């Protein structure tokens, strides 16, 4: 096969059925990528493009055959190389410059923000004139004098216990235990 074809992804939406039973894709976005050499179109390459759109996990990937009037009948699941080759042959044989891929992704997978999405606003506490010093003072409070952190080997590394250590007692020299140095 010779030729370059641009993959067009339909994503962010979902498949639904209308009252007459026909299946269709709703609430999606469309993203067109640069043309690819059809000899180098693989499922892994298409999955990488889906990752660029922010999809970490996919349930399914479908290509759509536009010559079929019924949308559902024109959908073909992309499972492996055989289906990729069928999609590329269909595209080249019909002198098309793009193939259309529909992504079916789990709802609970968060999408990364796209280039058109605005980042969430950053809230800054302006109540303090010197935020660095006040943040440091609030984040760390040293233990009171006479306390020391002691970790136990039997406890998890996340946990630590504080043990009170009294002031050291002065040892009195009694002369006992003295060695004769001569």
From TrEMBL:
<dbReference type="InterPro" id="IPR058594">
    <property type="entry name" value="PB1-like_dom_pln"/>
</dbReference>
<feature type="compositionally biased region" description="Basic residues">
    <location>
        <begin position="158"/>
        <end position="182"/>
    </location>
</feature>
<feature type="domain" description="PB1-like">
    <location>
        <begin position="1"/>
        <end position="105"/>
    </location>
</feature>
<protein>
    <recommendedName>
        <fullName>PB1-like domain-containing protein</fullName>
    </recommendedName>
</protein>
<feature type="region of interest" description="Disordered">
    <location>
        <begin position="110"/>
        <end position="182"/>
    </location>
</feature>
<feature type="compositionally biased region" description="Low complexity">
    <location>
        <begin position="123"/>
        <end position="132"/>
    </location>
</feature>
<dbReference type="Pfam" id="PF26130">
    <property type="entry name" value="PB1-like"/>
</dbReference>
């Amino acid at each position: 096969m010779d030729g370059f074809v641009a993959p067009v992804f339909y994503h962010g939406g979902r498949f639904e059925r209308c009252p007459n039973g026909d299946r269709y894709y709703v609430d999606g976005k469309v993203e067109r990528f640069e043309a690819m050499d059809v000899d180098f179109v693989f499922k892994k390459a298409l999955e990488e493009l889906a990752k660029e759109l922010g999809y970490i996990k996919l349930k399914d990937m479908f290509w759509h055959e536009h010559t079929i009037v019924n949308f559902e009948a024109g959908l073909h699941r992309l499972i492996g190389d055989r289906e990729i080759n069928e999609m590329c042959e269909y595209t080249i044989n019909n002198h098309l410059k793009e193939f259309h891929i529909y992504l079916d992704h789990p709802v609970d997978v968060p999408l990364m923000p796209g280039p058109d999405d605005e980042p969430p606003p950053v809230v800054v506490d302006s109540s303090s004139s010197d935020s660095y010093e006040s943040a440091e003072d609030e984040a760390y409070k040293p233990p009171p004098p006479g306390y020391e952190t002691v970790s136990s080997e039997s406890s998890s590394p996340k946990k630590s216990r504080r043990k009170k250590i009294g002031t050291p007692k002065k040892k009195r020299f009694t002369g006992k235990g003295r060695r004769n140095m001569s």
